[in-house]
Design goal:
With 272 residues, this protein is of the alpha+beta class. The chain has one domain. Helix content is 20%, strand content 43%. The protein has three helices and 14 strands. Strands 1-10-11-12-13-14-2-3-4-5-6-7-8-9 form a 14-stranded antiparallel beta sheet, with helices on one face. A hairpin with a 2-residue loop joins β6 and β7. About 10% of the residues have low confidence.
């Protein structure tokens, strides 16, 4: 009799734990329910693995890229460790910063050579960006954009047929995209810019915020015959162009949909 009671208690405990686990995993978070963006961003910055992505344009593969997150360690905490103290490999004692790197290659029929790009972003522990660098090259030319938050300037370097050209833009000028379009493209480019519906709202002194406001929600994605829970990030660029990013529960980039029918797809989908 005692053995039956013990078996009943163990079975009841096991069933209860399974139900609670299922509820926490599937029952409490409905599809489309809101999630704090900071929580998703933290997982992206600390993802344990890189994300290998194929690049598609109008459903045709044109290239590939790799998304690599890194967590920096404070040098003051990485001193000599006692031989008696066990230190698991890869454990960061104190985070100093976060780094995201994106590098890849694109091959377009309209280009004679492959287009290579390298993007590096560094973030503080509060997730505010500190430095930014984008380098795009197509031999023998290159284009580079970089910025440092403390300098409050964006630097543009161009090396093409006309030679080497450099220019610094104060952040204040970036709040007025119409001014920049007119300066570099002239009246025709400005008219095209406004014709795309990107004119600044009336009463805003022709100034438009270039910041991107993100929203995060719970969602599902299908892998073969199975469905997995993911996060869906949404944003609008220049109040007109939509961006969608699907992220795994551990922060890996799974799917990105950009304006112009550009899609980045994790190559893990190739196995399903």
């Amino acid at each position: 009799m005692r053995h039956r009671i013990i078996l009943f208690v163990v079975a009841t405990f096991w069933v209860t734990m399974i139900c609670l686990l299922w509820r926490s995993e599937y029952g409490d978070q409905e599809v489309g329910s809101s999630v704090p963006v900071e929580n998703v961003w933290e997982r992206v910055l600390t993802a344990p693995d890189d994300s290998s992505l194929d690049i598609f344009l109008n459903r045709k593969k044109i290239g590939y890229c790799r998304w690599t997150p890194n967590v920096g360690e404070d040098a003051t905490t990485s001193g000599r460790v006692s031989s008696d103290e066990y230190q698991p490999e890869g454990i960061v004692k104190r985070v100093s910063d976060y780094t995201l790197e994106l590098e890849g290659n694109v091959n377009l029929q309209s280009l004679t050579n492959n287009l290579r790009f390298e993007l590096t972003m560094r973030f503080a522990t509060n997730h505010n960006w500190e430095t930014f660098r984008l380098h795009v090259s197509m031999r023998p030319h290159f284009w580079e954009v970089s910025a440092n938050r403390s300098d409050e300037e964006l630097r543009l370097v161009v090396n093409d047929e006309s030679g080497l050209w450099e220019h610094d833009f104060p952040f204040a000028d970036l709040q007025n995209p119409e001014k920049l379009v007119q300066e570099f493209g002239g009246p025709v480019a400005l008219a095209l810019f406004r014709g795309m519906g990107l004119r600044a709202p009336a009463g805003s002194e022709s100034k438009m915020s270039l910041g991107i406001n993100w929203e995060a929600r719970n969602d599902w994605m299908r892998f073969g015959h199975s469905r997995v829970r993911v996060y869906r990030l949404e944003a609008k660029l220049l109040d007109k162009l939509k961006i969608f990013v699907f992220v795994s529960r551990v922060g890996e980039i799974l799917w990105v949909h950009l304006p112009g029918e550009v899609v980045l797809s994790n190559n893990a989908f190739e196995h399903f």
